[in-house]
Structure formats: C-alpha cells, structure tokens
Amino acid sequence: MKRTVQDVAIVLAVAAVVFFTNLGGPRLWDRDEPRNAGCAAEMLAAENWITPVFNAELRSHKPVLTYWFMMASYALLGVNEFAARLPSAVFGVGTCLLTWFMGRRLFGPPAGVWAAVVLATTMMFGVASRAATPDAPLIFFSTLSLAIYVYGTTRSISAHADAAPGFEKDFPTGWVLPTLMYAAMGCAVLAKGPVGCVLPTAVIGMSLLIRRLPPVTRTFSSSWERVIVELVRPFAPMHFLRTCWSMRPLLALGVILAVALPWYVWVHLRTDGEWTYGFFMKHNLERATRAMDGHNGGLLFYPIALLLGFFPWSIFWVPTMIESVRTGRKTDARSGAFIFALCWVGVYVGLFSLAKTKLPSYITPCYPGLALLTGVFLDRWVRSEITFPAVWRRIAFGSLIFAGVGTAIVLPVVCMYLLPGEEFLGIVAAIPLIGGSMALLMAERGQAKLACRWTAGTAIALSTVAFALVADRVDNHRHLEDLVSTIYSDPQNHDAEIASLASCEGSWVFYCGQPIPALSSPEEVIQFLSEPSPSGKARVVVTTAKRMSRDDSISPLANYVVGRIPYFMRQDEILVLKPTPSANRSAELPSPYEIR
C-alpha cells in the first residue's frame, strides 16, 4: 500500500505541475479554443444544455459533452481561460492515472510509473490536457474503457512483483465490467463522435484476433509466404466472427446507444436534422473522404507526427518498438500485454492514415499505449533485463542534445522576425542540451536509472517551461486587448454592435463578449455603418488591411479606420472601422506589402 501511495503521488505531482502551471495565463488560442469555450459560454448564458451554438450560429463540429463540463466549470469559476481549460487538465491527470494503473497490471509497478510520467510530459498530450478542446475528454473516456478491459482480464499483482503475469483471460466475465467498459465508450461518443467507440473496440478486437490465434504448425517455403500468412491469419472469416462475438456486440450496441443516443436524438429534433447532417456528413464523412481546410498528408504523416508530438520521449521510439515487437512475438504470458499496447498504437495510426483529412491531434488517444511501451522499455533497461545497444543509446540522447543545439540557433532567429523582444526565449534550449548531455553521460557510465531520471527531469522542465512561460510570452504578441479596447473606445457609448468582413476569429467573438455577424460585401459594410443601430449602440466593423486594399468599392471607408492592430503571425493588419469622426482616421489604405 505504501508503494502504491508513493507511485500515485509521483504521477499526480508530475501531471499537476505540467498541466496546471499557469493554465489560465495565455488567452485562448485560435481557432478551436475560443470557439469551444465561446460555445459553452453562449449555451450557459441561454440556459441551453442541448444545442451547441457559437457566434449565434449552430455549431455542428463536435458533440456536447465537452461543453457540459466547461459550463459546469464556468458556473463555479466564471467565464475565463482557467475555467475553460480546467476540465481538460483534470481529464489529463485522470488519463495519466489510468495509464499508471494499466502499466502496473500489465508490466509491473515501476513500468506503470514510468509510463504515466512519460505520457504527462509528451508535447502533444500536454497540448491536449491544457487546451479547451474535446481531445482530453475523448482520450480519457477511450483510455478508461481500455483500462476497465485490462482490469477485467488481468489479475492483481503485489506491489513488489517484478513483472505482471499478463492477460489471464480474453474478455471480462459477467455483466458489470463489460457494461462499464462500453458505457465509457458511450461517453467518448458524446465527446467526439463515433471514433469514441469504434477505435477502442478495434484495439481490443485486434489484440484478441492476434492473441487467440492457434500456433502455426505448417512449414513455409519462403519468408515472404510466412509474412503473408501471418498478416492474413487474424482475419480468417470464422476466427474473425468468433472473436467479434466474444466481445458481446449486442451488449456493446445497447449500452453505447443508451448513453449517447438520447442527446443525439434530442439535438436532431431540436435542429430539424441540421446538426446531425453537419456533424456526420461534413465533420465525419467528408473528413474521411477528402482533405478539409488543407489538412492533408501522406502515409508518413502520422509516424512523423508521433516523433514530434511524443518528444522528448520519442528519442526511444525505435529501440522501444524493436523490443516490443520482439517480446510480443514470444509465447510467454507477458507477450499478450505487448500485443495489446502495440495494437493500441497501430490501430489509431493505421486507420487515421487512411483518412484524407489529417491532423496530429487525431492520434493523441494512442499516446497512452505508446507510453506503456516506453515505460516498460525504460523499466527493463533499468533492471538490466534488456540491453540498450550503445549505438541506439547514443543516437537517442544525441537527438536530445541536437534538439537543444537546434533550438538555441533557430528560436532566437524566429523570435527576431515574428516575436521581437523575445529572443531571450532561446535559453529554453539549455534544458534539452544539459539534460541530454547528463543522460548520455550517465548511460555511458552504465547508470541506467540516473540516465532515465535525467531524461524525465528534462521532459518535466521542458514541458512546463514551454506551456507556462513560452506560450505566455508568445501570447503577448497577439494584441487581443488592443483590438477589444479599440472596438469599445467610444467615450459616449461604451457598448458596440460589431460586424466583420473577410475575417472573424473565434477569439474576437469570445473576448468581445458578443456575436460578430459576417458581412459578405463592401456594400453591406457601407450600409451597416451608415445606418443607425436600432439599439442606439455604436456600430463597428472589423476587417483586414489586405481585404480593404484589394477592393476599390470599399476604399471610401478608409477615412473611417480608427484602429490598426497587427494580425498575429500574418503579414496583415486588423482594421477597426467606425462611422463617427475621429482624429485617428487614416486617409490612405496601406499596400499589402507595406503592412508591418
């Protein structure tokens, strides 16, 4: 019990430091964060718990569960950045605890702790756990379903056991655990749609298809023949059907529908099917069949995304996979645990590689599986159960050092052009540079535990500094407060009716605290500004300098530009137009090439 409490304390401490440090510091990042947070705020203000709405328009991008958690957080803490991100941070901590639990059951207590620490300090999972998006709830409930499966198919081990015994049975018995497992998938469906049940089910199913295979008794004429047979064998029709039936598909369907379907039906009826069509046809089917918003990539997109998103622990990726596959091919009791974790990673990477729309965040739910493999690799290396070849060891820690050197060179140059005054952020490079050097030194001396601890310390420091300090400094250059103060700067009327032309970021809507309808043409802009508001409010139009400069019909409005705010990370300016005379008016529009 003492060992378990210590392990939980370590996991909680690491996850809390990484996920909660300055969580509410940076403002919400475009595009997804303010749209999700704004949707929850609008729903709460309207006492609407069913229909997602943002900018006074139906939002069919995601289901409702994330908004419910944000609304509850707002009710307790008010509408602010910390409250919007709090559910994600809590779910991130929860996922780390689930990963520790699975690692402990499958590979032993030390491997569980390593896996949880690895997961908490990877870059992409840190983003998911600190962002006001549906990713953290999806990952948590997907992982919860797999953790319940592991609990129901393995036996408890002593806190001092060297290794877990592996899977004891193929599927949880009785009704309680399977029902809870599929209920967790139903919650994941409420968080982000069908992927919440399809992919966790596929992970379990794929691992069962492989683990339940009988031994091969025939001889092969060539290695190619053996490879082909090994790939096809899991999908033999009768074997496939028996495995699927063993997972109790009728129970799965009934429980998932009982949890998720009521809301889907309710929102369908409330919106006359508009939400249902937008979500399933546009944001699911179309994303699978064609690249949307320019988010495309080849078959190497997700392997590369894993290398970057799993940093700094991706330095162990190649030896981890080699050892995992080698152990998974054995016939001992522990091989099933490796097969399960490998299937977790392979199903997500494989299926999303087939989809046309690609984003790094799509495969983040497989990070706990990869963390399990990394955790057991580190544990086995520390206990001298496996050898870490010198060439891979030097490549791994050398990569961390190289990342530090590259950051020291590149980051100040990038800041010089995009974030003037922040060149000092290049000092962040000292973290991987020093940490990688010390880890390499310890590894060369044969002190594997110290090498791993130096890597963990590097990962904790790098994640915390990147999310809590660097992000905050970058946020200072977004000038959102300048935009809001310019819009509401009328001394006679501190309220305003706002519209937009050409651009409307979610952060503008969230921080202005009101919907910003889009105008489609310069003529509508002129009409909007020339006519008095029925409410007596001042009227304001937000557009961009490039949009103004390329259209002669809007040039008469150049005299109504009362504010110019740099457009973050774009060679453009945000223009604020008001119809009232102002000494700050600019008589000439800039050329796009003259924009600062």
Automatic annotation (TrEMBL):
<feature type="transmembrane region" description="Helical">
    <location>
        <begin position="113"/>
        <end position="131"/>
    </location>
</feature>
<keyword id="KW-0812">Transmembrane</keyword>
<feature type="transmembrane region" description="Helical">
    <location>
        <begin position="450"/>
        <end position="471"/>
    </location>
</feature>
<dbReference type="GO" id="GO:0010041">
    <property type="term" value="P:response to iron(III) ion"/>
</dbReference>
<feature type="transmembrane region" description="Helical">
    <location>
        <begin position="7"/>
        <end position="25"/>
    </location>
</feature>
<feature type="transmembrane region" description="Helical">
    <location>
        <begin position="425"/>
        <end position="443"/>
    </location>
</feature>
<dbReference type="GO" id="GO:0009103">
    <property type="term" value="P:lipopolysaccharide biosynthetic process"/>
</dbReference>
<keyword id="KW-0472">Membrane</keyword>
<keyword id="KW-1003">Cell membrane</keyword>
<feature type="transmembrane region" description="Helical">
    <location>
        <begin position="181"/>
        <end position="210"/>
    </location>
</feature>
<keyword id="KW-0328">Glycosyltransferase</keyword>
<protein>
    <submittedName>
        <fullName>4-amino-4-deoxy-L-arabinose transferase</fullName>
    </submittedName>
</protein>
<dbReference type="InterPro" id="IPR050297">
    <property type="entry name" value="LipidA_mod_glycosyltrf_83"/>
</dbReference>
<feature type="transmembrane region" description="Helical">
    <location>
        <begin position="394"/>
        <end position="419"/>
    </location>
</feature>
<feature type="transmembrane region" description="Helical">
    <location>
        <begin position="64"/>
        <end position="82"/>
    </location>
</feature>
<feature type="transmembrane region" description="Helical">
    <location>
        <begin position="299"/>
        <end position="318"/>
    </location>
</feature>
<keyword id="KW-1133">Transmembrane helix</keyword>
<feature type="transmembrane region" description="Helical">
    <location>
        <begin position="138"/>
        <end position="161"/>
    </location>
</feature>
<feature type="transmembrane region" description="Helical">
    <location>
        <begin position="338"/>
        <end position="355"/>
    </location>
</feature>
<dbReference type="GO" id="GO:0005886">
    <property type="term" value="C:plasma membrane"/>
</dbReference>
<dbReference type="GO" id="GO:0016763">
    <property type="term" value="F:pentosyltransferase activity"/>
</dbReference>
<feature type="transmembrane region" description="Helical">
    <location>
        <begin position="361"/>
        <end position="382"/>
    </location>
</feature>
<keyword id="KW-0808">Transferase</keyword>
<feature type="transmembrane region" description="Helical">
    <location>
        <begin position="250"/>
        <end position="269"/>
    </location>
</feature>
<dbReference type="Pfam" id="PF13231">
    <property type="entry name" value="PMT_2"/>
</dbReference>
<feature type="domain" description="Glycosyltransferase RgtA/B/C/D-like">
    <location>
        <begin position="61"/>
        <end position="211"/>
    </location>
</feature>
<dbReference type="InterPro" id="IPR038731">
    <property type="entry name" value="RgtA/B/C-like"/>
</dbReference>
